[in-house]
Amino acid sequence: MKCQQDPQLELSLARRVTIFVIGVVESMLFAGTVFGWPQLVHVLKVEGLYSDLCHGFSTPSSLLPHAHTSLNTPTPPHQAFNNTRCHGLNNTFEISRSHIVGVEQCGPQDERFALIFTVAVGCYSVPGVLVGYLLHHAGLRVTRVSAGTMLTMGFLFLGMATKESPNWVFASMIFLALGGNQLRLSVMQFGDLFPLHRSTAISLLSGIYAASAALFIIFQYTASAGLQRSHVCWFLAALSTLSIFLTFLMPVHHIPVQDNYETWPSEPGTSQQPLRRSLLSGSSFLHTYWYFLNLLAINIYQQTYNVWVTASSCSVREAGWYSILFSYSNLVTVFFGPLGGAFTDYMVRRAGNTSSELRRRVMEVQAPFLPLLVTSLATTAMYMCIFIFHPAAIYISLVAMVLARPCTIAISTAYIRIRFPADHFNRLLGIYGTISSVLMFLQYPQFVWAQNMYYAAHAMVLALQVLSYMNPIHLLFTPLMRHAVILRDQLDEDQLREANISKEHTREKPQRRL
Fold first, then answer.
1. Is 337 among the domain residues?
2. Which of 31, 159, 174, 483 meets the CB 3.0–4.6 Å disulfide criterion with 233?
3. Is pLDDT of 509 > 80?
4. What is the pTM of this model?
């Protein structure tokens, strides 16, 4: 049973703006904190977490940015990165033979951190289907209180992780992932606070979560200032509890919906269609594939980033600089996430100029085509860079990530809101997230495969990602989209004829006054 709320509930402009600002700030701080893993793992390596796994482990010279005469391990052909940039420099990569610091290339340690990140990413959206139904049945307040509680526990556990007790990181990342995803999904409906700019608002809320990946940069700066990581975590835990208290400024169940895309002529906010009709459509399958492959490419890039930049660097200081750049890049994503939504809103408004009601609805569904395509291109460019072990490739990849990372979630969310009935939105968002996250566990065996066959493992992911271009391309087939709109909105010829006559009458009215 869907949660019930007063259908006459109206929110003042001041309250709507306040709720929206809260959603923006929360998303920017906490919604995707786990994706700042490349920055956090550098800090954890410096502190020596899991460095005990490196005792007795001899790092192959092929995994380092240049040859080390002290290590005489042969170089397998598939691991020869051919990084000759550092050969002429009068310095060596700071390898700790006792593995006290743990910032060097250590296979077992890298695999353990890769496993933690894989579990965290899986936990981020695997329960998404449950969160979608929780929002649908229990409402906004219950979901947000649960999210705030999990975030608080996550930061507390991260503060408890030490070199002697490193496994607290597992629990920490799991709770940060679960809480962050619940918070992200709960604020998605805040786009309905401004119906005329819904796609822009949804894109802003869903894309701005990427900025939260920069939160972990605070540990690097506070460490240089002499502050312990545990003290910073206590502060973040206290800050995250505000989400619980701010929830009471919002409606108990959901944000009131005013919909232009809904089943017609039924009342706004209702749907006469079963969820399976949306879920089993061709558009749904193509979008699920697109969403998963783009997220997989982004997550593997983030998981590989520390290993990649370390192998591309001539010193630990240089590797640390690239780690900081990763966090700064995530801050910049705030400005790019809403662009796709703003363009989609523009195309939707432009569709309103056509005299045909069916044509208008088809053009609205096709509105996200260009944002989806640009996001795919940016993801491809970002992933291709990890084949090249050079600073220029790192900088290019970060520029591409600034587009790919926020837009994958933002444009996907806006597209789902347009393409399918509004009543299906929360549940579809959760289902797609769960499906993608279950499949996301493949990134760990892919990481292990890449440890032995680097180029082959990443080439496979790149080829699969290119196939995801079918999702935006299928929107260009107008007859297919026309059929989809008729099924979605349950239209018939009489309704379309009446709507077209009414629209023509509205257009001619101002002319008669003249």
1. yes
2. 159
3. no
4. 0.67
